[in-house]
Every structure is written in structure tokens, then in C-alpha cells.
Amino acid sequence: MRSSLEIAQEASLKPIQQIAQSLGLHPDDLEQFGKYMAKIALSPEREKEIHKRPRGKYILVTATSPTPAGEGKTTTSIGLTQGLAYLGKKAIVTLRQPSLGPVFGVKGGAAGAGYSQVLPMEEINLGFTGDFSRVESAHNLAAAMLDNHIYRRKKPLFNVSSIQFRRAMDMNDRSLREIVIGLGQENGVSRATGFDITAASEIMAILALASDLQDLKMRMGEVVLGRDSDGKPIRIKDIKAEGAMATIMKQAIKPNLVQTYEGQPCIMHAGPFGNIAHGCSSIVGDKLALHLADYVVTEAGFGSDLGGEKFFDIKCRQSGLFPNAAVLVTTVKALKMHGGEPYDKENLKKENVAAMVRGFANLKKHLENIQAFGVPVVVALNKFPTDTEAEIQELEGFVKTSGAYGFAVSDGVADGGKGVAGLARLVDAAATANPNPKPQFMYDLEESIEEKMRKISQKVYGADDIVLGTGVKKKIKQLEEDGFGHLPICMAKTHLSLSDDPSKLGAPQGFNITISDIKISAGAGFIYPLVGKMMTMPGLGAIPAAESIDIDADGKVVGLF
Questions:
Q1: Where would you find the membrane-spanning parts of this chain (predicted)?
Q2: How far is the C-alpha of 380 from the C-alpha of 59, rounded, in Å?
Q3: Is residue 396 marked as binding?
Q4: With 60 as the cut, is the pLDDT of residue 115 above it?
Q5: Would you state the CATH architecture of domain 131-246?
């Protein structure tokens, strides 16, 4: 089979105006970026007109705990959208935007694979319409104004040691994780700080959760930078930066429109981390899509314990939208790893039903997590050529006894929408059987911060209890006194395990979740406890993906994915 990049480069793309027209959008509703990409820029009148249309069905795609073998949520989301179109349904997929750091660092492209990808793949992965750059610029403007505020000794006066707002850059660079700024005369106040990758910026999380530009500006103004000598929060609005930041972000708030390999619309907008933030595409994009199509397929980052739980408890709460059905993606290779097989590419290709059966414990827990929100769940096997009939039959048999709505093999990488038609039929039936979903959440907002963390840890991760690290109880008290106690929780935990230990695969038991620190994202509207050490600035590997990426004399990109 040809590489995903070769397939993308040989695709026959439709002009973006044609994709927009299929949704009932007018040429004046677009701001084009070349022939095949555009921002949807609606006038207030057009926005009201479109939001009067009937609302489509909403489908969440999540997965079992990630492994190096890959699960394929994005690929399945795109393939499912093409599969629904294959059945004659009008469907849109809404996805997060790729970050440049991972593209050049560890995995190449991030827009699907094979015949289930969004196009134009090179442009999407290499800067797209500039949203990440605008988030980075707005974030760093606030950082620069913060340090100027300190240097000029403006009021309110910061307790410099309390500052939690760092700088942002959309590239993997471990040397910038911890730095000292302000060295030398006339260079400001010397202090320790660092860089986070742009996807981990609170401004990115706000972009994904804001309802419009004015809401975006208001939320950015609420971002807590640090505290004064009395311990009171100092926000971005206190240094008068939110207006200029909103000016930078005025284009970024507009959703981006591209297309799948088979010509279905994709709204790709915002790209927050799936552990330090909520890992979902924008509310603006989803709300618009639901009035443009019969089905909207959206993806949440990592497994059901991270992006999936946060999709319900954070995004759904803020958007007022709740899915009609969910898809839980897994692979035979990943189940073998959760069953105790080491990561060995050749070994995982060999038939091993016993190891896969041991890995069912991980699948079962993730299935229970989604079912706890009252949503019908379809289990999708993202098929690899090495999967055997015996392994597939064993998995199907397990799912039939699990309480899931159904099971389907998804072969969108090799066969596009046709290869996902069976999954699409099941999803269509599940969503149709749940036309008016009733929101269910893992905790009540009125509960204490500690109790909310405990419920997530016990109900979603399967922990016995939580353990609060040194100083965490004091910080919780401070957050509640500051008026943040009612906010939802965004647990920052490893994605590799249901527990807080990445080496514990499957469905661990007899463990506690240790909360090492707790912080506030007041603009995004959530509290994020740190479970262990969270990496917000990745590094490059021994052989970065960038070593294989090149462009020839004719402008053709090679080695991207």
C-alpha cells in the first residue's frame, strides 16, 4: 500500500467553494486560503439564519488507552464520516488542528491515514491557516506585558515567585522547559520561567471553548497570571492585555474548512492538549457543523479516561451539546500490549488470541466509562492487515457480551468510506435510537474540588482513592476562597495508563491517584490537578521525524508521513 503522503498527493481535491456549497454556504461566507482551504466567516445575519436550521446528530469518537502500536481515532473519525456519506448521509467531521512540534518531532502527519485522511495534508500539517501562530503571538504578548508590568512596577504588584504564566512556542524543544529571563542590565527583572508548547497554552484551551470573539476576549482577560503579596489573583485584564490579544485572535476564532479524501467536509479548529487541557476541537466549529449536516463526528484526545471524560464533563457542560452516540476505537495490537505483550512491531503482528483476551480488561473499563454517561457505544476495531480472523472473532464475541450497542470492523485506511460502511450503519442506528440524549456527568459542580477529583479517580480510572501531595490541600482551600470551587476538573494525567503510572497497562487495580499539584485555568473555565509530572514542552527524539522531511526542486514534500 502506498504511503499516506503519496495517497494525499495523488488525490483529486474539490475546490473549497464546492465543499462549502454542499453545506449550503455561500461564497461570501468564506475567506479562502488558496484553492482548498478556507475560514468560515459568517456575518451576524448569516449566522442567525444557519442556526435556525435543524440540528444534526452528534457522534463522539474516543479510544482505549493509547499505546505505541496506535489506535487510530482520527483515522476512524474521518473514515466514519466518509462511511456515513457512503450510506447517503450528510456528514461533517470536526477535528483538532495538528501541532508543528509533533509533526517534526515524533510522528509526522496528524490528519488521518491512507484513504481516510483530510486534505490538503501537507498544508494542514505545516502551519495551516496560521491559527497556532496567532495563539502563540497572543500568549507571548501577554507574557511580554506581564514582564513589562513587573519592570515598570505598575500596580497591582506581583509576588514574582507566584507567577504561573510561561511563554509558548509551537515546536518540541526541551532546552526551553526551564529558563531564566531578564539577565543583564536594562533587561527587566531576572526570574525563572520556561516555555510550553503552544497546544498546552491556556489561550489554546480558551479558543476551543469560547462561543465567539467577545467571549474569547472576556475569557482571556480572566486568565490568572500570578498573585500579589496578599495572595490575591492577578489576571490578564489587570495588566490590560486582553483587547490587544483579541485583536490578534480575530481570525483564529473563525473555523477552518477543508475536505476528506472522498470530498466530505471537515471543520478543523483549535488544538488543545488532551491531558493538560481537554483535548477537543472547538465549540464554535461543532455548533456550526450541527446546523450544516445530518451527522457531526468529533474526536476527543487520548482515551476515554482523558479526552472522553473531559469531553462530557467540560466541553458538553460549556457547549450545552450532548452526543447521541459514541464510538470506542481499539486495535488488536493495542489489546495485545494491554495483555502484557511488549512493544515489538514484528511480534505484535503474529496471531496471539490469549494476549488479546488479557487486554480485554482495558477495553472493558473504557467501555464502562462511556456507558456511565448514558450514551450508546459502538466498539470499532481499526483493522490492520495482520489482524487474523480468529482474533477478530474473539473480539467480536467479547463485545457482544459487554453491553455495547454493537461491534464493527473499520477498514478506512485501505478502503475509505466503503471500508467503514458497517460501522456507519451501526452508528446511524445507535444515534437514531437516542434522538434526545439526556446529559449525565461524572460529578456535580457544587461538590468540593477534592470530591470531584476523587469521583473521577475512582469512577473513571478505577483507583481506590486520591492522595494529596505536599501543599495541595492548602492550594485547594485558596482556589475555593478565590471563588473557583464550582469549576469542572481537568485532570492532567498520563495517557498511557488508566492509573498514574504509565507502565501499568490493562486495567490496574489497588492503586491511588497522587495529586502532586493543582492549578487554575480560570479563562478556560476549569481547574487542573497535576497527577505526577506533566510534560508541557516535549523534546525531540534521537531520530526526529524532521530528519526524513524534505522538499524537492518542484516543491513536492517527501517524508512527512
A1: none
A2: 13
A3: no
A4: yes
A5: 2-Layer Sandwich (3.30)
Q: What's the pLDDT tens digit per position in 456-472?
A: 999 999 999 999 999 99
Q: In whole angstroms, what is the distance from residue 366 CA to residue 370 CA?
A: 7
The reported pTM is 0.96
Q: Kindly state the cell numbers that stand for 232.
A: 490575591
Q: What is the pLDDT of residue 2?
A: 81
Domains 4-127+252-432 and 131-246 share a fold: no
Nearest-angstrom CA–CA distance, 171 and 199: 10
Segment 432-453 shows an average pLDDT of 97
pLDDT at 108: 56
Q: What's the rounded mean pLDDT across residues 56-61?
A: 98
Q: Is 44 annotated as a binding residue?
A: no
Minimal CA–CA distance to 487: which of 278, 200, 232, 241?
Answer: 278
Q: Is 73 annotated as a binding residue?
A: yes
Distances 187 to 157, 178, 201, 314 between C-alpha atoms, Å: 19, 18, 25, 40
CATH code at 4-127+252-432? 3.40.50.300
Say whether 72 counts as a known binding-site residue. yes
Give percent of the chain with pLDDT exceeding 70.
99
CA-nearest of 178, 170, 162, 284 to 230 is 162
Residue carrying the nine cell digits 495485545: 336
Tell me the average pLDDT across 161-182.
96
222 marked among binding-site residues: no
In the three-class reduction of DSSP (H, G, I as helix; E, B as strand; rest coil), residue 426 is classed as helix
Q: Is 469 exposed, middle or buried (0-12, 13-18, 19+ CB in 10 A)?
A: middle
CA angle at residue 21 from 19 to 27, to 5 degrees?
Answer: 105
Task: Please give the pLDDT value at position 109.
Answer: 59
Domain boundaries, the chain: 4-127+252-432, 131-246, 449-531
How far apart CA 485 and CA 419 sit, in angstroms, is: 47
- Residue 504 annotated as lining a ligand binding site: no
Kindly report, residue by residue over 237-250, the tens digit of the pLDDT: 999 999 999 999 99
Whether 389 has a binding-site annotation, put simply, is: no
- One-letter amino acid at 249 equals M
318: pLDDT strictly greater than 80: yes
Q: Tell me if 70 is assigned to a ligand binding site.
A: yes
- Domain 449-531 is classified in which CATH homologous superfamily? Formyltetrahydrofolate synthetase, domain 3 (3.10.410.10)
